[in-house]
Write a structure and sequence with these properties.
By secondary structure, the protein is of the alpha+beta class. The protein has ten helices and eleven strands. It has two domains: 218 residues, Gcn5-related N-acetyltransferase (GNAT) (Aminopeptidase, 3-Layer(aba) Sandwich); 50 residues, no CATH class. A hairpin with a 2-residue loop joins strand 2 and strand 3. Helix 4 crosses helix 7.
């Protein structure tokens, strides 16, 4: 069984977890995501060398990275539910709406990539998953985590964390038609589940203790659960990443662009039509803005 083969390789002396904030951090995350997705045929190469999308432009989205001696070796994004919806809504809206109708607060895990040199053990993948779970529940108030994954790795999610499969397998357009399934996990009671499954195991297999250790490390970085008004992206960074470096905003629908601008508190100085014509764009702050929890 997968759980019995678990060996926690943490390398906390070398592996640093952080939330992308500046230009270099976002570009490094989107670059490894691009390279991994191209290698796995989840997308065709993009001229920018980056993979990012309209959901990354939403201010509530958190982009996690793990670095090894300064180089990004893994990334995972946490997307909160909003008027923008989720990437998975394209194929699994029924499943998402099932949670929404009963008042669940969903976060989607997306953009998961680990460098090929770090896939022989669960170290990087587990660190990203644990930090995403902790941040989504402790700082974003998530009651359900969902993801769209390759059916071949369902065992990793179900055995390690208790994710369940919902719905049927599909060819997922968001990942170039790759076979995909939808999985979800109830966050309430999850630590009790982890304690029951893991707390009697030796330290190197004890995922429950590992989660507690990582929770303390995350609190050092993120502080309390109080909200901060510090924006995640400046107008200049938003424009650089999603207008000039990639064409995320120019190719967005009018509704998507409107949601992004309203959420950030920025408006397009020359209007959306100029975006579509490739003319220079200036983003002007409005009086409102999204408040980011924790970090």
């Amino acid at each position: 069984m997968l759980r019995s083969r678990l060996k926690l390789v943490t390398r906390d002396d070398l592996w640093r977890v952080q939330f992308a904030r500046g230009r270099e951090e976002f570009e490094s995350a989107f670059r490894i995501l691009h390279d991994v997705y191209v290698s796995q045929k989840f997308m065709k190469p993009d001229p920018s060398g980056l993979r990012c999308n309209i959901y990354h432009a939403f201010p509530g989205t958190q982009v996690l990275t793990v670095t090894d001696r300064g180089c990004v070796v893994g990334t995972l994004s946490i997307i909160p539910d909003s008027d923008l919806g989720f990437p998975s809504d394209g194929a699994f809206k029924r499943e998402n709406d099932g949670f929404r109708r009963i008042g669940q607060r969903i976060c989607e895990l997306s953009g998961f990539a680990v460098h090929e040199n770090y896939r022989n053990d669960f170290g990087i993948a587990l660190k990203l998953m644990v930090w995403a779970y902790l941040y989504a529940t402790d700082y974003m108030g998530a009651s359900v985590l969902c993801a769209t994954v390759d059916p071949r790795i369902l065992d990793f999610y179900s055995a390690m964390f208790g994710f369940q499969k919902y719905g049927a397998e599909v060819r997922y357009e968001f990942a170039a038609g790759a076979p995909s399934i939808y999985i979800g996990m109830q966050c309430f009671g999850r630590e009790a589940w982890l304690r029951e499954k893991y707390d009697s195991l030796p330290h190197e297999k004890n995922l429950y203790r590992y989660v507690q250790e990582q929770k303390e490390k995350q609190r050092v970085i993120c502080g309390s659960t109080a909200r901060t008004s510090r924006p995640l992206m400046t107008p200049e960074l938003l424009e650089y990443l999603f207008v000039h470096k990639t064409k995320v905003l120019p190719t967005a629908t009018a509704m998507q662009a409107s949601i992004i601008m309203a959420a950030h508190g920025f408006e397009l100085d020359f209007g959306r039509a100029n975006l579509l014509q490739g003319e220079p764009v200036s983003l002007v702050p409005l009086d409102r803005g999204f408040e980011a929890p924790g970090v």
